[in-house]
Amino acid sequence: MPRYTVHVRGEWLAVPCRDAQLTVGWLGREAIKRYVKNKPDNGGFASVDDVRFLVRRCKGLGLLDDEDPLQVALEDNEFVEVVIEGDAMSPDFIPSQPEGVYLYSKYREPEKYIALDGDSLTTEDLVNLGKGHYKIKLTPTAEKKVQKSREVIDSIIKEKTVVYGITTGFGKFARTIIPVNKLEELQVNLVRSHSSGVGKPLIPERCRMLLALRINVLAKGYSGISLETLKQVIEVFNASCLPYVPEKGTVGASGDLAPLSHLALGLIGEGKMWSPKSGWADAKYVLEAHGLKPVVLKPKEGLALINGTQMITSLGCEAVERASAIARQADIVAALTLEVLKGTTKAFDTDIHAVRPHRGQVEVAFRFRSLLDSDHHPSEIAESHRFCDRVQDAYTLRCCPQVHGVVNDTIAFVKNIITTELNSATDNPVSFDCLLNCSYRNQAVSENKALCHPSSVDSLSTSAATEDHVSMGGWAARKALRVIEHVEQVLAIELLAACQGIEFLRPLRTTTPLEKVYDLVRSVVRPWIKDRFMAPDIEAAHRLLLEQKVWEVAAPYIEKYRMEHIPESRPVSPTAFSLEFLHKNFIKIPESGDL
Fold first, then answer.
1. What does the pLDDT read at residue 63?
2. Which of 71, 118, 179, 428 yields a CA-CA distance of 20 to 30 A from 92?
3. Coil, helix or strand at residue 459
4. What global pTM score does this model have?
5. Where is the secretion signal located (predicted)?
């Protein structure tokens, strides 16, 4: 029997439908009847039959026609809103489509699984989990570790041992002993009291990353959560039921207490929750619509769910993956820029970079050589100025390996730190199979502050001064994402400018890989013949970079060059030289002190 979840004036009602031929209008009126039945004053209505109303989907807010059959207009278990004439849409009702989400109308439940063990998650894995490419399962080893960890907690409770956060209060109340019959209530109150974030909710991709990362940390087997509860959390993730987690509120004290508390609040069936199927609704109804039950917290489990750095780390993970993607594509765009400005390739010669072999610099120079004029990929544009009298290009062109290279090295450094943090337990207390460490906290991710003005200089005292210095890591991660987005937009503009430069050099052609990049851009942005509104073009180019399309087009040529590279055989410009040329002609290379 089909069933629908209907929102009427702040109440959620489950309405079964015995006849699929019944209409949308019937559903609205039946929901109002059920709403009125529970109100002492009939909800203020003299007669339900006289009530005028509209029915709209919760997902997308599209209006429905009263006369449409339910089997045509709605899917089983779909969520709808009844808006009564004279009412505004319910003040506690959240728009169904989170900001920035444009693909969820095409959401398809993933079929592949990724096995988490708490030790081997990568930044790429987490981003793919955020995009909904995988469901989650635990490895057998992780299940055993989780069970052993929980046995320690159960033993503490049975023996009435005094341990912080399990049988005591938190923060300033660490010396307050909690009676055994209040331990479960303590965990629920902890989650509720710390759900104090503000601002817009995290977009689904980021909320999925946050939830997936917390599952990975719990899978390490040091948090004391029960296997039963952890599997419930995994079921929620696999159903793509995402709690309302405000993006603001964490200061990095004891990790990300506020956002993780909002995450846990949804898991216990309180607050709001979103899924591709339901849009935003009360968490308990979203869970119920997916055949799930709210989590019932056991002792220590509330603390296990909220005590960690997963908000900071998941946003940092997205930042580093996007930075890595944009850094690779920046090399391609810069090569295209150099080509249209008729620059020389000799600044990227192997010998030059062999004498200063920073890893990132050497790799960027290699990418330039693989994309620009060579025996592999001749360029008519390069041939047109091969014997010109220009000695060298501007810093912005010839120093790309040095500038881009250090960016690549920095990204690799940060990625290593974040990967460590992805697989680190940051609970307090930490449960081992033989002891408890009540002071452990991993702060490695704070080294990210060197990338820009440190957010940590604005530290504030929290928790009645028991946490008197905090990292402000959440704000730092959000700033990093903002910086990366700006870089992506600037690079999109450079990509458009370089492709427009190609137009002025026609009919000459550039190298095969750069022609492929040009064709890609022209598939979404036509050349400028006269002035026009540019914002849509910039956004289209930005989307190519965001989806790594530029890299996907050029990468096969870069790798082929890596595998098949042979020394250059053609003559070069007389203004260019190499170490090999100097040695052959016995020319003394000046010492640094002679320059």
1. 87
2. 71
3. coil
4. 0.75
5. none
Please, which residues have CB within 8 angstroms of residue 4's CB and are 6 or more apart in sequence?
Answer: 14, 15, 17, 27, 70, 74, 76, 77, 78, 79, 80
From 35, 164, 222, 561, the catalytic residue: 164
Rounded Cα distance between 126 and 122, Å, is: 6
Half-sphere exposure at residue 252, Cβ-oriented, CA atoms within 13 angstroms = 23
- Asked if residues 278 and 323 have their Cβ atoms less than 8 Å apart, the reply is no
Predicted confidence at residue 200, as pLDDT, reads 86
Distance CA(276)–CA(80), nearest Å, equals 14
In this structure, how many other beta carbons lie within 10 angstroms of the beta carbon of residue 35? 23
E strand spans, 125-219: 135-138, 198-201
Q: What angle do CA 482, 59, 270 make, to 5 degrees?
A: 80
Give the closest residue to 220 by CA, choosing from 320, 343, 330, 119. Answer: 119
Helix/strand/coil percent split, the chain, to 5: 50, 10, 40
**Angle at CA of residue 186, ends 182 and 187, nearest 5°:** 130
What is the pLDDT, as a whole number, of residue 232? 97
Backbone angles phi, psi at 95, to 5 degrees: -50, 140
List pLDDT tens digits, range 436-492: 333 222 332 333 333 444 444 444 444 444 444 444 567 678 788 888 888 898 899
pLDDT tens for each residue of 49-78:
888 889 988 877 788 998 999 988 888 888
Instruction: Say which amino acid occupies 323.
Output: A
Torsion sign across C-alpha atoms 507, 510, 513, 514: negative
The reported pLDDT for the residue numbered 506 is 92
In which residue are the tokens 């990724």 written? 114
Give which of 113, 134, 141 is closest to 227, Cα–Cα: 141
User: Is beta strand 53-57 parallel, antiparallel or unpaired with respect to 63-64?
Assistant: antiparallel
Please write down the HEC assignment for all residues of 276-334.
CCCEEEEHHHHHHHCCCCCCCCCCCHHHHHHCCCHHHHHHHHHHHHHHHHHHHHHHHHH
Q: Give the integer Cα–Cα distance in Å for 548 and 414.
A: 20
Q: Where are the domains of the chain?
A: 3-84, 104-308, 320-410+482-583
Q: What is the CATH number of domain 320-410+482-583?
A: 1.20.200.10
Helix (H) or strand (E) holding 96: none
Q: What is the second-level CATH architecture of the domain 3-84?
A: Roll (3.10)
Rounded CA separation 13/45 (Å)? 18
Edge-to-edge strand ranges of the sheet holding 272-275: 242-243, 272-275, 279-282
The number of helix segments (H) and strand segments (E) in the chain equals 21, 14
| Other CB atoms within 10 Å distance of the CB of residue 321 | 22
Whether the CB-CB separation of 274 and 79 falls below 8 Å is answered with: no
> Which residues of the chain are under the pLDDT cut of 70?
87-107, 249-255, 428-473, 475, 565-595
> Would residue 164 show up in a list of annotated catalytic residues for this protein?
yes
Query: How many other C-beta atoms lie within 10 A of the C-beta of residue 316?
Result: 27
Residues in Cβ contact with 482 at an 8 Å cutoff, skipping those fewer than 6 apart: none
The architecture that CATH gives domain 104-308 is Orthogonal Bundle (1.10)
Kindly tell me the sign of the dihedral angle through the C-alpha atoms of 410, 482, 114, 146: positive
Report the interhelical angle of 310-340 vs 400-422 (nearest 10°): 160
Q: CB under 8 Å to 522, separation ≥6 — which residues?
A: 499
Q: What is the DSSP letter of 23?
A: B
Find, among 30, 40, 41, the residue nearest to 8 by Cα. 30
